[in-house]
Structures are given as structure tokens and as C-alpha cells.
Amino acid sequence: MGIIEQLAEIKRMEVLEEGRRIGIEEATRRFVENLLMDSRFPPRKIASLAGISLEKVRKINIMSIIDQLTERKRKEILEECHVRDYCDNYSIPHAKRHAESYKVGLQDGVELITRRLVENLLKDPALPLKRIASMAGISLESVKEIKETLQRK
Question: What is the 3-state secondary structure (H, E, C) of the chain?
Fold first, then answer.
């Protein structure tokens, strides 16, 4: 593997990690927003379930109100900027791989944090599985699979 290929691989790994980080942040934000809509949970409990500070819960609440109208556009712009920045320095095939790495990292991060958050919700035996699925934004079957995995441990 030549130096150019090594540099491209390093860049791909950096982008994958950045996507994971952003995916975790995005999933945490969505999870907190879902819990905020459920008036049963006070902000302190939401912070505990999500593993974040009370101040962060308050900021997410404010930002979710502001972002409701612009969330989809923000994601499109972010993705476009990553591809455009990469295109300035590399060929189109490299740019496409870069965008794919970013998307894979983002999806990995979302799946990881969603799983962790569901595991925290499953600790409360009073919460029905259907409600957990709704709060986490995943299917009931996925919640059951996570619960079974936890029981096997």
C-alpha cells in the first residue's frame, strides 16, 4: 500500500469515527426529546437515563424547539459540506467512499447509543416494552431482542 492509499485509509477512519461521534450525539438528542415529550419523566430523571447533565437536557429541550423546522435541511447541508470538502482534495470516487464512511459511522453511533439508552430504560420494570420502543424510536421487536440479550448476560 502506497503513501496515498495509507493517507486515504487514515482519512476514511477519521471520517468513520467522526460519523460515530455525531451519531451518538444525534441519537442522545432524539432520545432526550422523546422523553421530554413524555411528561411522566422530570428533567433530572431524563438526564440520568441518558447519561448526560441536567443542563444538557435543558439545552436539548430549547434546541429541539428551534430545530424542529430546520433539522432535515441541516443534515443535508452537513452531508453536502463533507462531500464538497473532500472533493476539493480528492477524486469523485474517493469523495463517494468518504461520504459512505461518514454515513456508516453515523449509523454505528446511532445504533450504539440507542442500544445503551434502551438498556437503561429496561432497568425500570414499570415501563412497558411498547412504551420503551416508542421513546427510543425503534420497533418493539428490537426492544425485545435487546431485552433477551441482556437476560442472557
Answer: CCHHHHHHHHHHHHHHHHHHHHHHHHHHHHHHHHHHHCCCCCHHHHHHHHCCCHHHHHHHHHHHHHHCCCHHHHHHHHHHHHHHHHHHHCCHHHHHHHHHHHHHHHHHHHHHHHHHHHHHHHCCCCCCHHHHHHHHCCCHHHHHHHHHHHHHC
Report in angstroms the alpha-carbon separations of 71 from 23, 35, 75.
14, 18, 6
Does this model's pTM top 0.85? My answer is: no
Mean pLDDT on 99-121: 74
Model pLDDT for residues 37-48, shown as the tens digit of each residue: 876 788 888 888
